[in-house]
Amino acid sequence: DEKEAFQLYLQKFGECRDGSNPGYSRKAFPWYSGKLPQGEKVSDESLQAALAYRPQPAKRLNKPNLVEVDSEGEEVPLCTKCSMPVGEFAYQGREGKHTCVHTECMAQVLMKEAQRDEELRNQREQQKKILNRREFDIGWQMDSVPQNARWAARMGCDANPQGLCCLVLDEASRTVKVKATLEPSAAVNLEYLLLALKVRKTASREPLFSLDPVDPQNLEQSPQKKVYEPKWLAGTSAGDVMFQADYFLKELALGEYSMPVVGMSSVFDFSEMTGKENQWAGAFGLFWR
After folding, report:
1. How far apart are CA 109 and CA 106, in angstroms?
2. pLDDT of the chain along its 289 residues, tens only?
3. Alpha helix stretches (DSSP H) within the chain
4. Which of 15, 94, 111, 210 has most Cβ atoms within 10 angstroms of its Cβ?
5. Which phi and psi (to 5°) does residue 77 adopt?
6. First to last CA, the chain
7. CA 30 distance to own-chain centroid
8. Rounded to an integer, what distance in angstroms lies between the CA atom of residue 109 and that of residue 93?
């Protein structure tokens, strides 16, 4: 049957009928000597001990000793920060009710906690500022500056490759013309200039921008609104740069950034120099507007 045929196949499996042994090649196994290797014999006791061995779990590190016995045999509590004996007066440690901390060590602990809380608060405020800037489009960008090439071409001025233009006064004809220039300090932005001239021509005044509270009676919680004079400046490039400049000046006045000019002070600098009791220092941010 099938089982008997399978047994016969297993008996004949690997048998070489010509008498050779192809399963062994002296060239492939030159170290074979025809004898079984004679290693060291292991006793039954050693074998059983090796099989029965179980590794012990790692010992937990003991907590630092919080007390010490003095020469008189009395227990003296130790400071959890410096591991030195505490005196008659000590603070409770952050590790639990039965821990003690020196006065000096507690001052260091409180200082580190205050620093950590201050860092977390600064991180939250910085994240909030980033979200507000994205939401209200706060922050001047180089790409928002209008180029002079288009307006210079309409005015008949061939601007140089840098696109810098300036105003030149012709004393004979008492007229002002637009010319190309290589001096950055003399260059003007033509779009800003045209918008300012339009305000002067139509409204007989200079452009004005201000951030005013929506509810003047509740200054602490009231949001601010953009006020343009004239109103059609809203949405223009000149109106946007006036808003960005106004906001940046307020940030400078309130100490958000370091002052770009030597000797310029923020409201906090003035408050420290003249005394915090002076109420006019709180309104210094409006002066920058």
Report:
1. 5
2. 778 887 877 777 666 666 555 555 555 555 555 565 566 677 788 878 888 877 776 555 445 567 777 667 778 888 888 888 887 788 888 888 778 888 888 889 899 999 999 999 999 998 998 998 888 888 888 888 898 888 888 888 877 767 889 999 988 888 988 888 888 889 999 999 999 999 999 999 999 999 898 988 888 888 889 999 999 999 999 999 999 999 988 888 887 877 777 777 777 777 777 765 655 444 444 333 3
3. 2-12, 44-52, 103-136, 149-154, 190-203, 237-253, 267-274, 284-287
4. 210
5. -65, 145
6. 108
7. 67
8. 9
In this structure, what token pair is assigned to residue 275?
């005394």
What does the alpha-carbon distance between residue 113 and residue 105 come to, in Å, rounded to a whole number? 12
pTM over the 0.70 mark: no
Query: Quick count: other Cβ atoms within 10 Å of Cβ 102?
Result: 22
How far apart CA 230 and CA 199 sit, in angstroms, is 7
**CA–CA separation, 181 vs 162, rounded Å?**
9
Using alpha carbons, select from 60, 100, 108 the residue that is nearest to residue 84.
Answer: 100
Residue 76 main-chain phi, psi, to 5 deg: -115, 125
C-alpha span between 111 and 287 (Å, rounded): 37
> Which residues face 224 on adjacent strands?
213
Q: How far apart are CA 245 and CA 226, in angstroms?
A: 13
